Amino acid sequence: MTARAFQIASMIAGTLFGAYASLAIAAEKGVTVSAAAASAEASVVATDMRIGGDDKQTRFVVDLNRKIDLVAFTLADPYRVVVDLPQTTFTLPAKAGEQARGLVKAFRYGLIMQGGSRIVLDTKGPVRLEKAFVLDAAEGQPARLVLDLIATDRTSFMRNIALENRAAHNTSIKPSEAPPKVDGDVRPLIVLDPGHGGIDTGTKGSGGELEKDVVLAFAQTLREKLESGGKYRVAMTRSDDTFIPLAERVRFARSRNAGLFISVHADALPRREGQAEGATVYTLSENASDAEAARLAEAENKADVIAGVDLTTEPDDVANILVDLAQRETKTFSMQFARTLVGELKAAARLHKHPLKSAGFKVLLAPDVPSVLLELGYMSTKDDLKQLTSATWRARTAQALAQAVDSFFTPRVAGAGGGRN
Ligand SMILES: [Zn+2]
Question: What is the whole-number distance in angstroms between the Cα of residue 106 and the centre of ligand 1?
Fold first, then answer.
């Protein structure tokens, strides 16, 4: 393997997630890893793909403009195959990822971090990654990435993963923003968390608009508003199109002692579920306030599954956090901010008919940082989408949010505001 190849592989595998197949282990398991020429620095383009085979054995092929190095591994619960590549431009046919054939249920692809792309395959059941390699261009054929999957049983699948886990590093992806300089700055820190990113696009509008872009644009406008007042420091979990795992977003806020965490999303309803409109503010609760809140939390919590994060290595301490949270003031503060925010948004934006809800959102799990999740509106509703993509609406709504932040942080004057004294 070339030095460059190792650099890419260790960068992607070592800095991302818990479980991965190191190259050594991949080799031990018979997975082939190609070695590209050290000088091949041209950008990578994936131009086409094919799936062939049946429920016992399936071959997944992606055409590439040149040979590359890859790292491939499997994940459980749900069953997935993950392929990490150098940063790649995908020009695959629209809806390519919705193809189901043989052992492959669906797949997606995209940026996972600067310099690294990823393909995630959902499989129908446990599979063995028999081969993963890249062929040189030859005889009029382009370079090709080839994965051979073979159906297996859960016991052997889990045994393979356990082998892979022996080499696991429990380090995590680096947030796209470096820690802000504090320098004795005592102004409250607001962490803005634009949802999704990179390989995980979030919901989609009818014209191909992506939630990840809409919420990033909004968060950037909000950041400017908050910073221009001079009263707050602002940090963003991502300020570009990269993927950040949910737990990392929480860690980001906690490690910086944030005074407030605002996660920004845009919802969508499947067509058969009819229409809904307007913004909704969510806080954390063990039991969802209604069925729609439960549906949404489940969808938002899927971000890590979509991006191929290994959930089985995450500590299963959600229940403890909830107990812990109940004992702290954080919950009260989160509710207080959520109510203030709904009040301010009323004048500036359209609100959902039940604008204040709660559910078990993973991204709201910081026990010591007041946290809310704001769904700006529905990408699936025409009028909402028009607003979500309008700079005027963005500015007006961000202004309302900044107002709510101000009210939240302004110390109450004793005796004022109808207090108990
Ligand atoms: Zn979302």
Answer: 20
